[in-house]
Structure prediction request, 280 residues.
Amino acid sequence: MKKYILVFILIILPYCDSYSQTTKQDLYQKALEQYYASNFNEAIKFFSDYLAMDTQNWEVINYIGLSYLGLKNYPKAKENFSSVIALNKYYTKGYINRANVYALEGNYSAAERDYRDAIKYDRENLEIYYGLSLLYINSREYNKALIELNTLTSLDPKNSRAFMNKAIVNMLLDDTAKIFENVSESLYWDSNYLYQDLDKSLIFTISERFKYALSVMNESVSKNPNSYLINFNRGIIYYMMGNFSEAIKDFKKARKLYKGEDGKIPELIDKIIRISKFNS
Prediction:
């Protein structure tokens, strides 16, 4: 009898293992589907179920953190990113994501520390320099922001986001010529939506972190509503935030207000209006 039981166990074990693996894969796939559909609560449930079977999986924990970030639950997001770092100190995304949370909370020194730690393990990760540039924009250290963006473009000379972000820094520095130069170069390298390859929750994060620059431009527009340049500048910020409907309004107003003789400026405005419409 014992022999029959042993044979039965030996026969059924591979099927049980296969079922377990399939279940894990299904859970992971369902979790990703919910995450990319911005159903973050559902994503957390599926990722947590997966984690119950694989407790040391730092990539899954990172996704749970990103899901909480998408929900703007910063303490839970930070807690999960800290767990990621504890499990794998070489996993750069853990530092970057936790830095993003610190930045959103206004803890700029802690954010900067995490970004700098990330550089130790992966100095070619472009999101580090992009995050630092946003950090310095919000702390009003504009020259430092440009230094980080110059580092980024030295690593990736065709990075569209970097040039558009340089334009925003130059807005805050009142360097008109550089604004149009940066926007033109950004659109030259990539005429598609800048964030199409980013995680959903990171897009929300970036949008939140442009609020300071937007507040500056809103004040400028209220003081100078008929300035083509100020309306154009605010349109760029809305564009970077993914708010294309508001961006288009500002770009159209800027186009109407522009009375200069430089034909390249209306051409540039028309181009970014087309791109914004395509992505809206």
User: Anything to note?
Assistant: Residues 157-280 form a domain with the Serine Threonine Protein Phosphatase 5, Tetratricopeptide repeat fold (CATH 1.25.40). The two ends are 70 Å apart (CA to CA). The first helix runs from residue 2 to 36.
